[in-house]
Amino acid sequence: MIKTISWKNNKVVFLDQRALPTAEKYVACESYKQVITAIKNLTVRGAPAIGVAAAFAVALGALKLGDLTPDKFRKKFLSICDEINRARPTARSLAWALERMKRRFALVRYLPPRKITMALINEAKRIYIEDIAINRRIGKNGARLIARHDNILTHCNAGALATAGYGTALGVMRAAKAQGKSIQVYVDETRPVLQGARLTAWELKKEKIPFTLITDNMAGFLMSQGKIDKIIVGADRIAANGDTANKIGTYSLAILAKEHGIPFYVAAPVSTIDVSLKTGKAIPIEERDAAEVTICSGKRIAPRGTKVYNPAFDVTPAKLITAIITERGILRKPYATAIKRVHKGVSI
Q1: What domains lie within the chain, and their CATH numbers?
Q2: Percentage of the residues of the chain whose pLDDT score is greater than 90
Q3: Which member of 72, 248, 293, 326 has the greatest number of CB atoms within 10 A?
């Protein structure tokens, strides 16, 4: 299994996704601030992986607090959580993981600092383990939607690299392959950071799942040729009505899928759902550095001084989504009703 993230000797170790696919390097973080940097610079990326990283960052922060009074420990703990929460704004999993760590802290806050810290480390480890199990259930649920010889298009990277392991959208494909289905995957390169070309292609090659890499602007043409049977993508945040934020370019694919009558699926854990947001219009969209657009693989591809707009995500309206694949079942319209049920812990 691909080890995206792990806890070793009171350090958080990441597979450095900036170095892929040419090199498999690992980065060890000894402080929560180093983890924040790793999240910001895309050493680790993908909503579930960011959530796990945030939980481990809290644990690292607690390790450094020492023997403080309960009140001082609480203030420092909350300050660390607030700082981690600002790392990246769109992925719901980051805030979800911090909320869970805060709930655990509330239960143990009057214990000696050493025991508090151990409780937080154990909670982060549970989040890590649970994420892998959740992804496997997503894969199993989603594989029911895959026919034996489907050609599947995916965008960005929603695989093991975007999670603690196994993956969401790619988890569905892994599960389909394990069932003996002879699928073919088309991988969008995913500009501007090329997560599809660098990461998804790397994962599929490792898994020996047949794939073809295409540029982002080829997708519509392939659909018109009848070469795409289904589209499966991940998600960074899902609003209460089913509107879904995912990597920039996802919305365009959903519109194309609607035009060509192709099912468009979102695969994501329930923790991605943000019921506090009524619609996708309220989802915060991160805008990243202009250099991601003007420089590619270290080479400048646009004139210096070029004005750039670089939103990292877009929002796909719920009406364009055929179904949302979660660990608690496959959600179908009306999404508001289905989301209320799974958010309460009910399986569908």
Answers
A1: 5-136 (1.20.120.420), 143-343 (3.40.50.10470)
A2: 96
A3: 326
